[in-house]
Write a structure and sequence with these properties.
The structure is a single chain. The protein is 57% helix and 8% strand. The chain has 279 residues and is mostly helical. The chain has 2 domains: 151 residues, Herpes Virus-1 (2-Layer Sandwich), CATH 3.30.40; 95 residues. The protein has a 3-stranded antiparallel beta sheet with strand order 2-1-3. The longest helix is centred in the C-terminal third of the chain and has 57 residues. The chain is elongated, with a radius of gyration of 36 Å. InterPro entries: Znf_RING/FYVE/PHD, Znf_TRAF. GO terms for molecular function: zinc ion binding. It comes from Reticulomyxa filosa.
Length: 279
């Protein structure tokens, strides 16, 4: 039986690799598809490219390959042409052919895979096959991806408790069994998550209180220092006929420094409060 990762890989490859010829022939005659065969993998071409190198211009047949097949072939063979060895392989998209392939009627590839396993079961697969489900999709290739992503009975479902840490994935009809069999595990996940959230909330509340206290102390310090500076300034002015501009500048600088510190504390408190509200 395929793993979840293998099934996901198959689904990703549906839009890239050439199509399995045996699967296509389940609902199509061979005469319909004989011009759709990839010259590299010998399957039904997907995203067809036509090779049109000058070296092959005398050939009568269309040189059709799948885009993914050609890409892999060129990477593995130092960009040498797959028809005959030479550099500078030239090719172009064949959109009319792609439209014909897109209109082919096919069955669900997941259903085909299950039917193939049922026809040739391994001993360890017999129990799994007896529990099989069925998908009755029969439609055009161009509609296949939407079916696989939305309505296929073989579509994999995530556990309801994924946000709490359960990464289990299974077929939709198997999800109920998973939920019933893992009640305690899911309860523990939820409990752990809420405990962690409560701890986070408590820490942030303590941080807000600490900052508010520091802010209050800073305001008092500014008030005390401000009063002291004013007294010193008045005393100096009374003792001197000419005001000392340098002293006034120092006093103003000290007051501005405290104001900036106070503003930073206020900003920090507001930031923590916003973060707390978002959580």
């Amino acid at each position: 039986m395929k793993t979840v990762e293998a099934k996901k890989k198959d689904e990703e490859d549906i839009g890239l690799s050439c199509f399995n010829k045996d699967w296509i022939l389940q609902l199509n005659k061979q005469e319909q598809t004989k011009h759709f065969v990839c010259l590299i993998c010998r399957q039904i071409v997907n995203n067809p490219l036509e090779i049109n190198c000058p070296e092959h211009e005398n050939l009568d047949e269309s040189l059709i390959v799948g885009e993914n097949c050609l890409k892999n072939f060129l990477n593995d063979n130092q960009n040498s042409c797959p028809i005959q060895p030479h550099d500078g392989c030239q090719y172009s998209k064949n959109r009319p052919l792609q439209r014909q392939i897109n209109d082919l009627i096919v069955m669900c590839p997941r259903q085909y895979a299950q039917d193939s396993k049922a026809a040739n079961p391994r001993p360890q697969q017999e129990e799994t096959i007896s529990e099989k489900i069925n998908c009755d999709f029969k439609g055009k290739i161009k509609d296949l991806q939407d079916h696989l992503n939305t309505s296929c009975p073989f579509l994999l479902s995530h556990c309801w408790f994924k946000p709490f840490g359960c990464n289990h994935t299974c077929l939709k009809h198997q999800l109920k069994d998973h939920l019933i069999a893992n009640l305690q595990y899911h309860f523990d996940l939820v409990t752990t998550t809420f405990g962690s959230l409560q701890q986070t909330i408590r820490l942030r509340q303590e941080e807000i209180k600490r900052l508010q206290l520091e802010n209050k102390q800073l305001k008092l310090q500014i008030q005390v220092n401000g009063n002291k500076s004013q007294d010193n300034a008045l005393s100096f002015l009374n003792d001197n006929s000419n005001p000392n501009q340098h002293l006034q500048s120092q006093i103003q600088g000290e007051m501005e420094k405290y104001r900036q510190q106070l503003q930073l504390k206020d900003d920090e408190i507001k930031k923590i409060q916003r973060s707390y509200q978002q959580d």
